[in-house]
Amino acid sequence: MEVNFIDIKDFRETMLAHRRKGMDFLRELIGMDWQDDGLGAIYMLENSSTHENIEVAVRTLDRERPQLPSVSDIWMVAELYEREVYDFYGIEFTGHHDLRRLYLRNDWVGFPLRKDYDASEELNPVRMESEPVEEFQREYDIQDDREMAEIVEKLKILHYDQYVVNIGPQHPATHGVLHFHLSLEGEEVRKVDIRCGYIHRGIEKLCESRTYPQILPFTDRLDYLSAHQNRHALCMCIENAMEIGVSDRVQYIRTIMDELQRIDSHLLMYSCMAMDMGAITGFIYGFREREKILDIMEEVTGGRLIQNYYVIGGVQADITPGFAKKVKEYCNDQKIRIKEYYDLFVNNVIFRNRSIGVGVLSREDAISFGATGGTGRASGWACDVRKRHPYAMYGKVDFKEIVHTGGDCYTRLIVRLEEILESIGIIEQLIDNIPEGDYKTKTKPIIKLPEGRFSASVEGSRGEFGVFIESRGDKMPYRLKFRPTGLPLLAAAHKIMKGCKIADLITIGASLDYVIPDIDR
Amino acid sequence: MIDFNSVTTAIDRFLNSVLPHQAATLVECLIIAVCAIVAYLTFAIVMIYMERKVCAAFQCRVGPDRVGKWGLLQVFSDVFKMLTKEIIELCSSDKILYTLAPFLVIMSSIITFSCLPFDNGLQVLDFNIGIFFIMAASSFGILGILLGGWSSNNKFSMIGAMRSGGQMISYELSMGLSVLTLVVLSGTMQISDLVEEQTKGWFIFRGHIPAFIAFIIYIISGNAETNRAPFDLPEAESELTAGFHTEYSGMGFGLFYVAEFMNMFIIAGIATTIFLGGWAPFTIPGADAFNSAMFMIPGFVWFLGKTFFVIWLLMWIRWTFPRLRIDQVLVLEWKYMVPIGLLNLLIMTICVVMGWTF
Fold first, then answer.
1. pLDDT confidence of A503, banded at 50, 70, 90?
2. Who is most buried in A1, A235, A439, B300, counting CB within 10 A?
3. 3-class SS letters over A365-402
4. Domains of chain A, earliest start first
5. Residues of chain A in Cβ contact (below 8 Å) with chain B
């Protein structure tokens, strides 16, 4: 396949030049194994003000010790992305200051997404003992007199003479199995080491051995609070690649369901934030309304959490007759209820004192970390995919992109609450005019994508969710990559959590609103 | 209104007539201990049930309604469950202190509870520094919490214990100040005299502005003393999983839990005694017919009614506010409550000296 590779020697200069030209948002960093064409990575860059996109690919032919220059100093999010690529492909990024595995165990043998990976059980048996804890950061650096980069510096991750506390992997406030390794000084957090991978299921690896319709259900299991949007992205990507047209009715239904899902997620975010800060009544109030959305979803899709609703070419089943009425009733109710959240929790003096000015993420950092969604918009970055690259009905409905400039925990909550109202606005514009038509376009029994690279992205509940497919004309993808919405948030969390109090750490975690299965995949 | 002093004196005289003096005293002590513990547990059960129902009402829920009529047996089944649970022994904990900690907490709680004047003459200890004794007895519960957190050898427990130490010792101060303000007004520390004085009018009315400020300070610091939201930092379940009692199971945890509830009762009871007239009925000077009607209602009904009203206030606060952060807790105490409390004490003293009270 045609890939325009940049020479590895010019790579850093090219990337720096792109950065200088305003390509400040690293959307994705996709590790690739082109077999005979070497190992490498594709970088998807975007200009945050003009929304111009470019792709840069780089590779190395050395399969024994593949090494690429790191860009983690140019885009901060690359720090975690490169660790992921190292984990899956074994590509060593020279200049990266902390190249450890991100998801798999430290004692894992082999790099699973390489095409020549040996998956035999003798190499990686089910280990019954705990993972050995890495104490040092490993840095690869090019030495003048050597061709190969070696580990040049060993920097202690945490000093064990400090008061080291584990928040997670089983902890009520990490919202899943995430592990914060903290070193404390009194109540203050001195250093944070984030360890993920406790719910890593190797979904991208699994996808390579599944047909496209079989891949669909995986999306619901990534970010379960934006199940519809995730699946929307995958369906859209496949539909665009195969040039399947979907009816207007489907577009309407998908847009409405996406927005309902977004409200659902934002309500959960509000509720959990209240819960994490000890306001349990605020939590129950949010869940009271969320329950109504789940009832509507259950009626239409049959599921409350895992919904399996969108399929290639349409949706699984048509909406029910009472759908429009119920949604409208719900919308009217929610607009009144949202005031209660402000009265009870958001305008409470304790909450304001605990969240205003806590965990401030600047606009530059938000872009550099690629922290999209409510977090980016709270930092003043207009990053809504629905506005940047409209899809489905979003180009035709009238809604406002909520952008605030505070960048703190309080603003992040406010952005979400205001977005609920915008989402209700979108639903109300569409719900009365759902056109007649097929709810599903007929597709061929075996779905094969033409050769090529395809990508699509949607605005998930907590940021840009992207799908990248490299197809070799097969019924299975050669490489499929999901852009996680949570990983950039985690990268940002790492920075803003330093120096805060334990209680702030929980507040920041709640306000960033990450979902662990989406980070770990 | 019944004077329970006559009842207790009659019992005392009867016991002394059938038994030698020392044996009679011993029997009296035993009766009192049994009564106090039974009353303690009864109120604990009532309050746990009340908390669940009140909390449910604030949260638009029904609350427990499956075990027994209106869920009345829920608390009993919970206690039974807790009793049957395994008490997990930790190999790296300090065994003696670890076992001792919950008992210290419950002991301080029961001793304080016994000092509350439920009705005229219906109290265990009544001597000239009664209110001072209550403050002293209630504050050694902190020791249990500190020890519990420290001896568990768990980092979360340790942080919880350190927080509780910082918080409870600080708030003891403003609590003492607000009680002192009322002692200045009443001129006595003896609990029976304090209440007797209030049959002419509750102190919160007689002391007007300074008494009211003292009441607010007392309620805030009382909330902090009982480790309840917005001051539940030592537990802070979203930060420290369960704070100082993370490592306790079965009745060890149960004792902490009951003590926390009963401390709320005690805080409310003291508030009732010194601000809201204890068992003294509500009277309006001059309206004799109304006053005599009020005096028909038994004193313990007045006491419990007022106490449960204050408890309801505390629950309302508990289920409304988010949690404070540790630095904010300390700032609130040392930068606001203590200076205000001191100033308030001064104002009260001036009021009393100048005769500006009712």
1. confident
2. A235
3. HHHHHCCCHHHHHHCCCCCCHHHHCCCCCCCCCCCCCC
4. 5-157 (3.30.460.80), 211-510 (1.10.645.10)
5. 163, 165, 171-173, 184, 187, 274-282, 284-285, 288, 344-345, 348, 350-351, 353-354, 501-504, 506
